[in-house]
Every structure is written in structure tokens, then in C-alpha cells.
Amino acid sequence: MQGGTYSFIDVQASIVGPGGAFQLGYGEATAEEGITVAMANDKNAMTIGSDGSGQHSLRADNSGQITVRYLKTAPVNATLMALYNAQRIDSRLWGKNIITVSQSVAGDLVAATQCAFKKVPDLTYATEADTVEWVFDCVRIDEMLGTY
After folding, report:
1. Which residue range(s) make up the domain with 53?
2. What CATH number does residue 113 fall under?
């Protein structure tokens, strides 16, 4: 019988870059929506000729985005803002972050390099507190999915 149990409790994430190194995953007041890893482009391009024959092109692109979401009250928001502010003052510091995400039970592993803050997150001040989304553009994302 196949199967297993997933829990965000088993998700570890971290960022290392000029000006700081700290945890991003479970235990950091992560919002319900958690962490998203998304590739920027398709890996394949298929071209079909006028006679119906075709070809595939394997693209070398491994770029993408990692989005981490926190409760508005999460202390990590201030830490990420301080890191953003430290890195934006000097282009030699920009785009040098490494982000890792893992899920220990299955053995999933994501390693992203040359990561830069996309922008300062949008903030909403309303009757109820919202979440804060930090988006990182990553030049290279390598993923390995484990099994349960």
C-alpha cells in the first residue's frame, strides 16, 4: 500500500545571503499558503512543421520564483526587510541569496541560487491583519522530489 502523511511541520526553509542567514519555514509564523516554488518557463519547446513532423527543443533555463508567505505579525518580516534594505544599497550584494526548502519526511529538496528580492511586498492595513508575501527571482532552481 502506497501513501503517507504530509505536514508543514516537516518543512524546513532557509535563506543565506549578504547580510544574513536565517530560517524561513515551519516555526516562523508562515501563513496557511506557505511556500511556493514555480519555474519561470517551460522546459520544452515543441515545433511542428507544415507536413506534421515535429521537433522538441530542451531549454537550459532553470529560472523561477520562490514565494514565502507570513502572517503580518511574523517577526521574520522585519528580518527580511532589513536584508532587502542591506542588499539594495550596493549592486555587488544584489542577487546573491541562496534559498533552500526541504520536506524531511518525503526527502523533497529545493535549492535555489542567485536569488534576488522581486520587490518590497505589498502591505494591506485593514480590519483584519493580512499576510505578507516575499517573492524572490531565482536564476537557478534545482528540485528533487522524494517519496512517502
Report:
1. 8-144
2. 2.30.110
